[in-house]
Structures are given as C-alpha cells and as structure tokens.
Amino acid sequence: MKIDVSHIAKLANLPLSKTEKTKFEKQLGETFEYVEGLNEVETKNVEPKSQVTGLENITRDDTAKPSLSQDDALSNTKSKHNGFFKVKAIFEE
Amino acid sequence: MKLNSLNIKEANEGLKKKSFSSVELTKACLDQIRKLEGKLNAFVTVTENEALEQAQEADKLISAGQDLPLLGIPIAIKDNFSTLGIKTTASSIVLDDYIPPYNATVVAKLKAAGMVLLGKTNMDAWAHGSSTETSDYGSTKNPWNIKYLPGGSSGGSAASVAADEVIAAIGSETAGSIRQPASWCGVVGLKPTYGRVSRYGVIAMGSSLDSPGPITKTVEDSALILEVLAGVDENDATTSPLPVGNYSQKLSKNIKELKIGISEEYFIDGIDKEVKEMVEGALKKFEKFGAKIENLKLFDPKYAIDVYTIIQRSEVSSNLARYDGIRYGNGRDYFKDEAKRRIMFGTYALSSGYYDQYYNKAQKVRTVIIDDFKKAFEKVDVIIAPTSPSLALPVGATKDSAMFGEIADVLVEPSSIAGLAGINIPIGFSKSGLPIGMQIIGPQFSEELVLSVAYEYEKLTQVEKWRGLKPNL
C-alpha cells in the first residue's frame, strides 16, 4: 500500500527529512496492510461505538469559577508579549 | 525488614503504631532509589526535597491523630500525570521543561489522602509502547534481570514497585500499559473500568480508552488506592456517577460460587510455554478450591490489534495536534519516530475519504467485541487468561518494530477496547527467573469482584515459595 507521506506530514504539521519520508512510507504502508485483517469481520448490521460509558449529555452548571491566572497560563511559554502568547504571523501584509 | 520493602497496609500500621515515622519510611525509599537508579532508570524526576517536606508534614498530622488512607505513604506517579510545580514530560523531550500549573485529579486525590510524592516514573514517550524503549530518557530495566525490559508503557512505575524503591505507584493504561508491565515485573496492576477513574490532567493518548490505575505489591493495596482514585469528576465528563465501592473492606469472594471463563483464543500460537503452563496451573488451583471453569469461545483477539491500532492512533493524532511549542513545551520537530508514525497513521485514517474504511470500521468491530464480552459474562463471572504471551523480553527487542507494542498487548487489548475492569497478579517465575502474570477480567464496574477473586487467589497461594523472592540488585 502506497501512502503519500508528504501530504500526510503536511496535514499533521510534522517536519520530515527526505530519509524519514522514505522510512515512514514503508512502515506506514506495512501497518495499514496489517490492519486490513479487519475486513474479515462482518459488520453490515453493526452500529459503530465511539465510547463505552453509555453516558449521554453530561453537562455542568454554567457558572464562572476561578481559573488559572494569566501569569500561570503564560508560565511555560518561550514567547510572550505584554501578557499574551506571541505567535508567528498568520497573514502577511 | 527494610522499611522500603513494606506494602501500604504494613506501612500504615507501622506509622500508626509509631514504630517508624513517615520521614524514616521516605528516607528508606530515597536510599533505595539512590542505590538502584543507575541500574534501573525507573524515574524521570525524583522529588527528594518535596518528599521529605511532605513526610514531615505527615508525621505532624499522624501525631495529631489524623487518619487518612495514604497518610505518609511514599508513592511514585507515572510522568504523564500533571503535577503542579513538578516537571511532567510524558518521557518526551517535547515536554522536556514543562512544569504544569495544575494537578491531575488523580494527583489531587492522592495528595488529599496524605500521599508523599517520591517522583515521576519513566514510561514510553507519550505512552506509545510496551517496553519503555521509546522513552526519550532511556529505557527502564527489569529489576529481576537488568538485561531485560520492564514492559510498558508504565514500566517505570512497575519496576519501582518491584524493586522496593516505592511503597506503591500509579500508572495509566490505554491497552495493557498497567497490566503488561505489572506482569513482566511481578507486581499487581489494576486497570479499572473506563470512566471509573478521572483522566483530567493525564496527558491524553487514546481518549476513549485511557484508564489510570494503581501498581502495587499486594491486591489489598490495589483496592485501597482504587478507593482513593475512583469517582465522578466534573472535569472529566466520562467519569461514572455510579457509587464507589469500599473495595478494601469487601475483599472476599466465595470461590465455590465462582464461574471462571477461559478461551483457547487467549492461549495463542507462539505463547511462551512456561507462561501457558503456569496459567493452566493457576486455573487448576482455582478448580481445586472449588471454582467452576467454563470453556468459552471468545472473539479472536487478533482483530483487537487492528481495532486498537486504528482507534488509538486516530485519537493520538488528534490529541498530539496541540503540541505546537507555543504555549508550553518544544515544537513538533522534537517528536521522535514512534510518535510521528502514530500521528501520521491516525491523520491518514481520519483523512477525507478514508474515515469509513478505517476509523468507522474499527468502531463497528469495537461494538462486536463489546457484545462478545457481554454474552460471555452472562455465562461466567470472570475471565482468566495470561496477561502477556511472553516473558519479559531482552533490552533492544523492540527497536524499529513498528507494531511491537500492539502484538505484545494482544491479550489485553480486547478488554481495554470494551472498557472492562482487569487486573494482573503475579503467579510465579520462569526457570530463567522472570515473573509470570495472569489477568482476571470482569464486566464494567466489577472492580469489587475482580479484586476479590485476585485477593482470594493471593491468599490461597500465600504459602508458595516464590512469593518470598526479591530482585537481586
């Protein structure tokens, strides 16, 4: 099975070297071939299950509570400006 | 008897009777850590100063007559649980310098119960693996033979308990990550029902599967910690409102009324001969004590590998999307091979045009697995099987094997996919001196039953000679 690793890496925002691309193309292909076994299981009338708890519509009261302070929230960033996270420009002028 | 080799129950009694202090107990553990860490590498971070401060505080409370379930007990926590003010890496250099500004619910509950936090244990990076060989801080070694692996991903927690570096530890399981390292290290590892213990503040791996739980020296200790951890949490909407049991008080089950299911699908081709024989031997003992063994035909666990591979990697790709190095940690160029493989597999499986073929198909087979267990539990109380098809494997065994973890975990994946309760208990040793474990699986929220069956087995086989063995380090 052939996977377009460059496209997937772009979607996943992962920087890959050329050697990595070759290596992962092979490994990912093998893993996808491995899971093909699943097609042996008949699932025509089976509903998919995304979770096992059986719980539904779990909500909490919509009340404001103390949360992390601005300083705490910023305590791990390497790049901040005037009390905000500083990120790379998204739009160019 | 060295203080660090005590279990929770013994340590609690000693502390209460003032036979020793929490500071002495904590120091004994820290001495053992100092002595062994060069060989074992079970920890990413040892919090020596904080631990001694907490132990002093605990001693004051004990003197004042305070009674808390874990007061003054030194415990280590897997490094994927957020700890306020203490570095939390998930054994990945992406989070090499990350210091969480809050505690995971599990950590907050243990602290409220009086725990002394000894440190954060090593694991497979992001919990991706079954060996600790994917840790960016080097693999942990098996205390029973340091040329062998401890299993994973909670390998540091299991090794630290087996080596008496701690009194108990906390791990997390997505599929096997508590039970399999417990099996390879010869300790008790409980994977609670999904939703029994809050995931809030645990660095997420497979969100529909992640289940935190205890790794301990005895079944009774496991019950005691579960009592502290379990319960509804408003910060994790998947936690169950069902009442939490008095697990440690209700540890008994009349074995004569017990129906145990076994399935030949779980004694797979290629299973280690000694593992197979020892689990069969344990089942014979159950029979001798009066339990009924019933043959089941369970859905072949080989398909669980496929289901798990797809669901877990899809959820990984989504969960690890948040690590961009902006708010905390390093950038995405710091991810290593295993994480990159899983992120890309999941990204592809969820991408436009492939969703039905992979993720949706896996979720359908998940339903088949859930229904299969439901049917089985109409006939039997618990299911017993080997935990791992092999003994601990030698260091280096998993390098460059993209599917190693999934295949090693084949016998624990079906019950994880169905969100069931399961426990590994040690049942003996191989001729080569490596531990062998067996798992007891029960329906959802059957922790009381599963722990009781494990407890009865432990009690009835207490006289067996191997129980006195300690790692020679």
What would your notes on this structure say?
The complex is a heterodimer of chains A (about 90) and B (about 475). With about 90 residues, chain A is mostly helical. Chain A has three helices and two strands. Chain A has a domain at about 1-40. Chain A has helices spanning about 5-10, 20-35, 70-75; strands at about 80, 85. Chain A has a two-stranded antiparallel sheet with strand order 1-2. The model of chain A has no long low-confidence stretch (mean pLDDT about 95). The model of chain B has no long low-confidence stretch (mean pLDDT about 95). Chain B has helices at about 10-15, 20-40, 50-65, 105-110, 155-160, 180-185, 220-230, 275-290, 300-320, 335-350, 355-380, 405-410, 415, 445-460; strands at about 45, 75-80, 115-120, 170-175, 190, 210-215, 260-265, 290-295, 380-385, 420-430, 435-440. Chain B has one domain: Alpha-Beta Complex (Amidase signature (AS) enzymes). Chain B has about 475 residues and is of the alpha/beta class. In chain B, about 35% of the residues lie in helices and about 15% in strands. An eleven-stranded mixed sheet of chain B has the order 1-3-2-4-6-5-10-11-9-7-8, with helices on both faces. In chain B, a hairpin with a 5-residue loop joins strand 10 and strand 11. At the A-B interface, helix 1 and helix 2 of A face helix 9, helix 10 and helix 11 of B.
